[in-house]
Design the sequence.
């Protein structure tokens, strides 16, 4: 997946964005069918959930606590964006659907890639045409990906509703999140995907608001595709301490299949590490 610069853009402004590295590795076993994502995981929480991070985040966690980094990310059922761990199933991702089709046609995608990801957002990495009609772009991405034999991950960002002249935008009286829910973009993504992420990191300091947004989006996604794997984002950019992440996690643990753990720009990896320790101690 041709992401931009490590994790930098994932959490900028109102959109906790996934930052595309040249390659994205996903620890999910071997199959490209949705059922494979749910099979063979330990029964005890939190390890029944899917955990996702970039290799940069994993290395930052490993520098503080190697055992915690390994517990969550060096195992089947976790996703490591960019590869580097022994259990990884390789995937790749793009913020630009047209570039994905060019790479697919040119045969430049690594032969070991099994999953591909599309991350449309209201940012320069996604072409304006795709920002304005993300559903059409997601559909084109999924069709091309399936034709190439890939599993599909789509991670639309709520910032899409703030794109001028977009197919669906927020009104003057709506929040970005309310408009995103109304526009049904997550449902469209789920209909086309094996995995979706709900990018609600901006709300994680308010567990009630975080849960409300994640729940509404998860209901949409599963109504569109009952087998889709639903992840929700967490980020150290917005957390004042590990308790922030723990409260957000706890507010939706009954709703989602897992979380993306971001440490954007190296911001407070100690918070993420402490959170994962607390979670392991309380839930493991």
Sequence:
């Amino acid at each position: 997946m041709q992401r931009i610069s490590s994790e930098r853009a994932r959490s900028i402004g109102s959109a906790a964005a996934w930052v595309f590295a040249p390659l994205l590795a996903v620890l999910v076993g071997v199959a490209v069918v949705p059922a494979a994502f749910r099979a063979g995981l330990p029964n005890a929480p939190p390890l029944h959930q899917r955990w996702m991070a970039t290799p940069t985040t994993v290395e930052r966690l490993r520098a503080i606590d190697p055992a915690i980094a390994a517990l969550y990310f060096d195992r089947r059922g976790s996703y490591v964006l960019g590869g580097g761990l022994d259990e990884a199933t390789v995937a790749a991702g793009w913020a630009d659907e047209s570039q994905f089709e060019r790479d697919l046609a040119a045969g430049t995608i690594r032969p070991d890639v099994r999953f591909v990801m599309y991350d449309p957002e209201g940012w320069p990495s996604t072409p304006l045409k795709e920002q304005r009609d993300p559903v059409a772009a997601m559909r084109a991405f999924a069709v091309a990906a399936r034709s190439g034999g890939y599993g599909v991950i789509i991670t639309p960002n709520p910032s899409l509703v703030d794109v001028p002249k977009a197919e669906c935008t927020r009104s003057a009286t709506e929040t970005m999140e309310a408009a995103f829910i109304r526009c049904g973009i997550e449902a469209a993504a789920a209909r086309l995907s094996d995995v979706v992420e709900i990018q609600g990191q901006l709300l994680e300091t308010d567990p009630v608001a975080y849960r409300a947004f994640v729940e509404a989006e998860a209901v949409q996604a599963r109504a569109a595709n009952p087998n889709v794997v639903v992840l929700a984002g967490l980020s150290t950019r917005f957390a004042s301490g590990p308790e922030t992440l723990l409260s957000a996690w706890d507010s939706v643990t009954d709703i989602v299949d897992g979380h993306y753990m971001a440490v954007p720009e190296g911001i407070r990896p100690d918070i993420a590490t402490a959170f994962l320790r607390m979670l392991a101690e309380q839930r493991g």
Observations:
- The chain has a mean pLDDT of 83.
- The first helix runs from residue 34 to 38.
- The chain has one domain: 24-283.
